[in-house]
TrEMBL record:
BP terms from Gene Ontology: regulation of DNA repair
A Gene Ontology cellular-component term: cytoplasm
Xref: HAMAP family: RecX (MF_01114)
Encoding gene (name): recX
Keywords: Cytoplasm
Cross-referenced InterPro entries: RecX_HTH_1st, RecX_HTH_2nd, RecX_HTH_3rd, Regulatory_RecX, WH-like_DNA-bd_sf
Function: Modulates RecA activity.
Domain called RecX third three-helical: residue spans: 100-143
Pfam family, one: RecX_HTH2
Subcellular location field: Cytoplasm
Domain RecX second three-helical: 54-91
PANTHER family tied to this protein: REGULATORY PROTEIN RECX FAMILY PROTEIN
Principal place of residence: cytoplasm
Protein name (database record): Regulatory protein RecX
Length: 154
């Protein structure tokens, strides 16, 4: 096969060998390689049927990688949505995870700050930091109160 006539299945497998991709990401990547849309859909359907591509597996792997980066559920949800993952699958993935979001918020706060802050302005800064990482208000206030106590170790 010449360079101009690359096989879309081979391109997809090369990509999937590096990391998991959502079906939307894989479709976009194959389209950039100038494969025909009908051929791309056939390849994607075959890869899913063979278990080589799975949005569920992608979502689980993505969740683990973002938890390792100390990111919260709201940010993870937004990023999964951006990558074309179905809302029902996002909800299932987040609800079935065993992540303690409160402890994770504490860990993120401890890593970034030495203490809860001496006044409301400093505490608001810490809450904004946690919100930017995808934690909700309840998780943020919990972290402010407990992040520097020895009982909140992960």
């Amino acid at each position: 096969m010449s360079e101009m006539q690359r096989d879309p299945r081979e391109d997809a497998i090369v990509l999937l060998a590096r990391r998991e991709y959502s079906v939307v990401e894989l479709r976009e990547r194959l389209a950039r390689h100038e494969h025909e849309p009908e051929t791309i859909e056939q390849v994607l359907n075959a890869l899913q049927a063979e278990g080589l591509q799975s949005d569920s597996r992608f979502a689980e792997q993505f969740l683990r990688s973002r938890v390792n980066r100390l990111q919260g559920p709201r940010r993870i949800e937004a990023e999964l949505r951006q990558r074309g993952i179905d809302q029902a699958l996002i909800v299932t993935t987040l609800s079935e995870s065993t992540v303690d979001w409160f402890a994770l918020a504490c860990q993120a706060l401890r890593r970034r700050f030495d203490g809860p802050g001496n006044d409301r302005r400093e505490q608001a800064k810490r809450l904004r930091f946690l919100a930017s990482r995808g934690f909700d208000g309840e998780q943020g206030y919990h972290a402010l109160e407990h992040a520097w106590t020895s009982s909140e170790e992960l």
